[in-house]
Amino acid sequence: MMPAEGHADILIRGGEVVDGTGAPPRRADVAVAQGRVAAVGDLSNWRGDEVIEADGLVVAPGFIDMHTHSDISLLVNGRAESKLRQGVTTEVIGMCGWSPAPAPESRREAMIREVGAWAKDLEWTWGGFGDYLAALKRAGTSVNVAPVVGHGTVRAAVMGEEGRAPTAAELAAMRREVELALEAGAFGLSTGLVYAPGMWAETEEIIALAEPVGRQGGIYFSHIRSESDRLMEAIEEAIRIGRETGASVQIAHLKAEGQRNWGKTEQALARIEAARAEGVEVSYDCYPYPAWNTGLGQMLPAWAREGGAERMVERLLEERLLDKETRDRIIAFMRQAAAEGPGRWERRLISSAQSETGRAAQGRTIAQIAEQQGRDPEQVVIGLLIAERGRVGMVGFGMCEEDVKRVVSHPVGMIGSDAAARAPYGVLGEEHPHPRAYGTFARVLGRRAPCPWMRRCTR
Ligand SMILES: [Zn+2]
Question: Is 249 exposed, middle or buried (0-12, 13-18, 19+ CB in 10 A)?
Answer without folding.
Answer: buried
